[in-house]
Amino acid sequence: MKLAKFANIALALALTTGVAFAKNEVVVSTQKAAGTKVVAGIDFVSDGKVAAFDFDLMVPGLDVKSVNLANCASELPKGFRGWCNAVQDKIVVLVVGDGLEDVLPAGVVPVGKISFSVRSSNMRKLSNAEDRKSVV
Questions:
Q1: Phi then psi dihedrals of residue 32, to 5 deg
Q2: Would you list the DSSP string of 63-125?
Q3: Which residues, at least 6 apart from 20, have a Cβ–Cβ distance to it below 8 Å?
Q4: Of 13, 16, 25, 61, which alpha carbon lies 20 to 30 A from 88's?
Q5: Nearest to 18 by CA among 135, 129, 115
Q6: In Å, how far are 53, 79, 97, 109, 122 from 46, measured between CA atoms?
């Protein structure tokens, strides 16, 4: 049962963020799941020309009070900063460079980690989530 939940969460997070390992894509991967609690890593696949990006991670049934965003943007490279917030059924992430000419290096760029809980009745709905992102 726990393995099935873990697989559902991993699939849901992949579908939620449109994981494609193409250039300029957000990748959210489940690192740990127990019951309704999820710990996920956030990475960005960059073409080396991105100065900023933002996205909404849609999480149906998100328990906003359980969201831990302390490390949401803690792994960004020097010269970049990020802000994260949880609102209703989504986690919003914004990343920008400090200078006018700062761009993320090409390749997979670690962003950070998030943890949250989902109300158990909504675990299966995660796979129907949609995303919104923009890249500059």
A1: -160, 140
A2: EEEEEE-TTTTTTPPTTEEEEEEEETTEEEEEEEESSTT--PPSEEEEEEEEEEEE-GGGGGG
A3: none
A4: 25
A5: 129
A6: 10, 15, 13, 7, 32
Q: Please count the helices (runs of H) and the strands (runs of E) in the chain.
A: 1, 8
pLDDT tens per residue across all 136 residues of the chain:
443 444 344 444 444 444 445 589 999 988 877 778 889 999 999 999 999 999 999 988 899 999 999 999 999 999 999 999 999 899 999 999 998 889 999 999 999 999 999 876 555 444 334 455 656 5
Backbone angles phi, psi at 129, to 5 degrees: -70, 160
What region, left, alpha or beta, does residue 132 occupy, with left being phi > 0 and alpha being psi -120 to 50 degrees?
A: beta
Q: Which amino acid makes up residue 87?
A: V
Report the distance separating Cα 112 and Cα 66, nearest Å.
17
Closest by CA to 42, choosing from 107, 92, 99, 109, is: 109
pTM of the model: 0.74
Taking alpha carbons only, the member of 57, 81, 74, 79 closest to residue 132 is 57
